[in-house]
C-alpha cells in the first residue's frame, strides 16, 4: 500500500513539473519573441499629401492606431502576427487592406478618395399663390405679409434689407433705391402687380413711395433673362403684390416716436358674393435737426401719404367650383415731401398707378389675361445752388 502511494506522489510531481515547464516555455517565447515595428505614411493617391486621422488596425482585431496630422503612424506587432493584414479606413477614402509583409520594403500607403452617395432628398416649400403671365424658371424668394405686417416698417426698403441679396442705398433726402449683389441699380426691375415702376430717365424707383401695409407679399425674382417682364429686366425683378383681403374687417393704428416722428393708418377689408376689396390710408411725418443748431427754422422735415384701393370680383362657374371670370382693379397713390430748411433743398414726389385686369378661363383655349394700366410720376426739386 505504501509503495502505491509513493508511486502516485512521484507521478503527480512529474506531471506538475512538466506543466510548469510548458507554461514557462510559452511565457519565454512571448517575452523574448521579436516584435515588428511598422513606421509608414498614409498619403492621398492624387495630391500626394499626408492624410490625418486614418484608422490603422490589424484585420479581425481591435489592435491599431491612427495617423497624425502629417499622415504618419507607428504600430508595434509581434512576429507571430507577421502573416496578418492591416486595414486602413477613412470616411473620405476607400478602405485599403495591406499585408504586414508589404512594409518589409515599403513605407508609403496610397488611399484613393471616394465620393459619399447620400439618399435623394426632396425639399418642398409653399409660396403664396401669384400667377405670372408667363412661366418663370428663375429663383423666386417670397416675403409674405405675415413677416412684416405687425413690425411697423416705414417702407418696403426696410423689409428688403433683411434679404441677403438686396442692397439698399438711402440718400440724404430720403430717396431709397435697391440693387442686387453683383449688379447695378438700374438693372433691377421694380414692379407693382406686374406693372413696371422704374423711371424712364434713370431706370430707378424710390422705394419709400410704397407702403408695406397694402401688400400681400414681395417677390424677389433673381437671375438674368427675365423674359416675363420684357427685355428691360436683366439682373433681377422685385414685384410688390397688392393685398386683396386681410384677416380682420378694420385696423387702425397710430404710432409716435423720437425725432418728432409719428404715423397713423386705417385699413378696411371685406369679402361677400365673390367681391373682395381692400382699402388703406396712411399718413406719416418726422423731423430732424442739426446738432450745431437746434433752431426749428433750420430743421429737416419729411412727410409721406399713401392711399390704396384694391377690388376683385369673380363670377360665372367653370368645370370646377372655381369662378370662370375675374375682374380686378388696383389703385395706388403716394406722395412724399422733403424740406431741408438750412440748405434750402426741397424734393416733392407724386406717384399714382392704377390698373384693370380681366382673367378668363376658357375651357378650350386656356386662360386669357388682359391688363390695362395707367401711371403718373411727378417730381419737383429745389436746390440752393439753383437760386
Walk me through this protein's architecture.
With 387 residues, the chain is mainly beta. It is 10% helix and 48% strand. The chain is built from 3 helices and 21 strands. The strands form 5 sheets. It has a 7-stranded antiparallel beta sheet with strand order 15-16-17-18-19-20-21, with no helix packed on it. A hairpin with a 2-residue loop joins strand 16 (261-272) and strand 17. The longest helix has 31 residues, at 2-32. 22% of the residues are buried.
Helix fraction, binned, reads 10-25%
CATH superfamily of the largest domain: TonB-dependent receptor, plug domain
Unreliable spans: 6-11
CATH architecture title of the largest domain: Beta Complex
Strand order of the largest sheet: 15-16-17-18-19-20-21
What is the 3D form?
elongated
CATH topology of the largest domain: Ferric Hydroxamate Uptake Protein, Chain A, domain 1
The number of helical segments is 3
CA-to-CA gap between the ends?
Answer: 145 Å
Mean pLDDT: 80
- Count all strands and give the number: 21
**Content-based structural category:** mainly beta
The description of the largest β-sheet is: 7 strands, antiparallel
How many structural domains are formed by the residues? 3
In the CATH scheme, the class of the largest domain would be: Mainly Beta
